[in-house]
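INFO  loader      accepted 1 record
INFO  loader      residues=307
INFO  predictor   begin
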Amino acid sequence: MANTAERFAFATFDVLQSERIAGPRYSYWKSVFQTFFKRKTAIFWLALLLSLTLMSFIQPLVSGYDPAVAPNINTPSTWYQKPSADHWFGTDDRGNDLWDVVWSGTRMSLSIAFIAAAINIGVGILVGAVWGYSKRLDPILLALYNIISNVPAILRSMMLMYIFGRGFWQMVMAMTITGWLGIAFFIRTQVMIIRDREYNLASRCLGTPLKRMVSRNILPFMVSVIATLVYQEIPGLINTETVLSYLGIGLPSTYPSLGRMIDVYWSFVDTYPHMIVFPGSVMGLVTISFYVVGQLFADASDPRTHR
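INFO  predictor   done
INFO  writer      dumping tokens
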């Protein structure tokens, strides 16, 4: 009979090998984008949104259109031209090529919406995350929210525009001074749902700082919620700019925007409908694209949709 050493071999223990996971590595963001791009609808609307956005920022640079420079209005032959090979969107009552005017106005509206949305969402998320976790700030901010939210957002923006005056940065200020508060309240509610889960209670007992609790334990679980806020905020701000400019209290005439175009060209809706159809169509496509892409990305960022 062979001895024990010849019949058996002692297994070695490797600490690094014992920590390896046999299953495939999981990447959250990789899974998010895989889920998002599996849908042909998402690819179509994302391509349309990127095309419209790039067109609105590149085309005005190429055309050289300057709304501050008055066109030659002494040539009636260039007025009110219908869409053609030379003027794809036609011309307006001053002889401007609507193709240039529409994309310049779209750039202005998107610029205002992007800047205001970045401020509202950034401030709203930070304040809302701390608000939902801090019991000291909760009654103060809740009282402020209850007072301001009783006034409709469009009326708040109108009052602030009357105070600040008409202009690009004045409109951004009017949209952001109180615009972040509703987002902060929404984030506060979501944080209150997450903060009392077991892992957060354990981290609190271990003395984890508030900043780390918010940035590591709470906000990463709200990616889909934040994506939903983004796709709702940007189209909402575009609509706000359009309403304010249409009412004549938004941007001045030297700042072309979709709202200004609708305000100026609305009187020609019966006689020259192309002057309203094209700005309205571009605004509708931009708004719908943001809504659809945002909703699909929010669904893709939900871990429950991953396999």
